[in-house]
Amino acid sequence: MKPDTGADERTARLFHGSFLWPLQLEPLVADASGGRHWEVFAGLSGHPWRRIDDEFTADPAQFQERHYREFVSFLPYVQRFLYGEGRSRQRALEDPPGDSPFHLFRRKDVATIRLILRPASPPIELRVVHVDLCFFHDLDVLILNVEFRGDDLPLATVRDILFRFGRAYPSGWDEDGDGLHNVHLVEWLDAGGRVLATSDAEHRSKFLEYVCEHRSPCITGHWAWLLQPLVLAHSDAAGALRYRLIEYHRMPVMSYLALDNPRALSREEWVRLGLATVLHPDEPLPVGDASVRDFVGRYCQERYWQNSTAGPNTRFICTGNTLTVVGEAGSPFFVDGECGMLAQFRHQQFIVFLIAHLHRAALLVFSEVLVDAVNDLDIRDETSVRRFKRRIRANFETFLRFTHRYWFHELSERPHLQGLFRMCANHLRNDALYNEVRDEIREMSQYLDSDSQRRQSNTVVRLTVITILGLIATVTTGYFGMNIISFIEGAPAMRLLHGVAATLVFVVLVLFAIARSKRLSDFLEVLADERVGFGGKMKALGRVFVGGGR
Fold first, then answer.
1. For each of the chain's 550 residues, which pLDDT tens digit applies?
2. C-alpha 500: how far from its chain's center?
3. Which of 187, 229, 333, 485 falls 20 to 30 Å from 179 in CA-CA distance?
4. Separation CA 439–CA 5 (nearest Å)
């Protein structure tokens, strides 16, 4: 371990972070150009996003060891989800390899993020590593990934960035009109330093008017610009692809910090760092809160936190919405971006965090679709009922595909990765949410099945009543030799007239029987009831013609 170096121990020699923002995509309209969300997105022109194939389809000479380590860290069915099925020259033509359901788009025009955390604070610049959009087959879910890094930042500044930066909209405004708990100013810069977009959290009237008009939150300008040509669902802006928020305004975040001596941090500093997104930097530590009291046992993974000069001295803190990795800046293994912990953070641990939040986002979208379908249901409107049935059955089919394609409990045979995934999923309550959504969909499906059985039963009752009445006519005509009145020797016109008249009479009788089939069914039940006297049975027969309650 390094000796005590004072304030340097509270400096992040390397700060690497990623915001992963799950969003819900609106279903494509029926008369659109066709295709799935990412296909429509790829077909749009005039935007900087470009489709990125995974590294496994590139030149083998460019395939790096960090990519190989990422691939072999996961179980085969997770590999197929992330990278598609294996390729083979001997593979049968009738069974071509399947592509990955994961579709990635990247923009490269944003090079730097400039932050002014508070009105009087100096600007901070973070280098942009990647800005990605992740689409998923069969899911109306989109995940924005903004990956960035900074050097030699005070630990207090890092905590302030984590607390203030990843917010989609202000939760309120302070006395000076600035967004409450937001970064004072955010600017996206290109490689030449030109400002591409700026935050507007201080424009209070914009957010108030939007919520008042649309009953939906509006996001700040720099995030809205970054997502273009995607547009907010309730916005008046034109756009073929629209999105809405799934959860509240704070984005899940991963952070990697290389400190000179992380073991010099006090317990309070560890708590504030691990809970940086929810603990205000200027407020006292809520020592009575359960998350603070049980911080280590609830949120820390100590597998590599070894008090030894030979140990990696790496601590993992996972709260579900955050994953924080802290280690020694002087450790070659920890800062190695090809084979060390930094490479694992950007690849294996990123995928673990991504899948956990994909699970939660997809389940919340399934639940939202069910709620919306029930809200739109009007049982008195046949069109509404048919639309409700279509939406529920389509949601049920998609949920089945989600279960078999995306829902994993075991991602890796490596205990560390698997432990991180279970910790993240447990804090996000993914298993409980899955069970809730599955039960809701099952109840909806059972309702549709019972409704179909009820309709079939009613049809069988009507057909039974008509069959009974037809049986009477059939036996009667059969007794008299089919034709009670003979028209064999009549004129052809007269026979045709009698045939038409008889047909009309029979049609009227059948239609009358169908219209009164429910009353006739009730009459047959009364007629078969030995406890009802002759007078009661006659009253039941009268109700067939004049109506009235039973």
1. 333 444 566 899 999 999 999 999 998 865 445 578 999 998 898 899 999 875 555 556 666 778 788 888 898 988 888 888 765 555 544 444 557 888 999 999 999 999 999 998 999 999 999 999 999 988 999 999 999 999 999 999 999 999 999 999 999 998 888 888 999 999 999 999 999 999 999 999 999 999 999 989 999 999 999 999 999 998 888 888 999 999 888 999 999 999 999 989 999 999 999 999 999 998 999 988 989 999 999 999 988 888 766 667 899 999 999 999 999 998 898 999 888 999 999 999 999 999 999 999 999 999 998 888 888 888 778 788 888 888 888 888 899 999 988 998 999 999 999 999 999 999 999 999 999 999 988 888 777 777 777 767 766 766 777 676 676 667 666 655 555 566 666 677 776 777 677 777 777 777 777 677 777 777 667 776 677 777 777 887 777 677 654 4
2. 62
3. 229
4. 57
Strands (E), 384-537: none
Length reported for the chain: 550
CA distance linking residue 525 with residue 224, whole number of Å: 67
Judged by phi (left if over 0) then psi (alpha if -120 to 50, else beta), residue 138 lies in left
Six-digit token pair at 21? 């923002």
Contact 59, 30 (CB under 8 A): no
Tell me how far apart the alpha carbons of residues 49 and 110 are, in angstroms, rounded to a whole number. 11
Distance between CA atoms of residues 447 and 41, nearest Å: 37
Write down the residue that tokens 């630990």 correspond to: 155
Helix (H) or strand (E) holding 432: helix 430-479
CA distance 250 to 247: 8
Distances (CA, A) of 516 to 38, 459, 507, 537: 54, 13, 14, 17
If 0-12 CB within 10 Å is exposed, 13-18 middle and 19+ buried, where does residue 432 land? exposed
- Cα 390 vs. chain centroid, distance in angstroms? 20
* DSSP conformation class of 337: S
Bridge pairing between strands 231-232 and 242-245? parallel
| Residue 163, burial from CB neighbour count under 10 angstroms (0-12, 13-18, 19+) | buried
Q: Which of 80, 57, 151, 125 is nearest to 411 (CA)?
A: 80
**What is the rounded distance in angstroms from the CA atom of residue 472 to the CA atom of residue 475?**
5
Residues 541, 516 contacting (CB under 8 angstroms): no
For 467, the token pair is 């069959």
Q: What letters, b where the CB count within 10 A reaches 16 and e where it falls short, cover 360-398?
A: bbbbbbbbebbeebeeeeeeeeeeeeeebbebbeebbeb
467-497 in b/e burial notation, b at 16+ Cβ within 10 A?
Answer: eebeeeeeeeeeeeeeeeeeeeeeeeeeeee
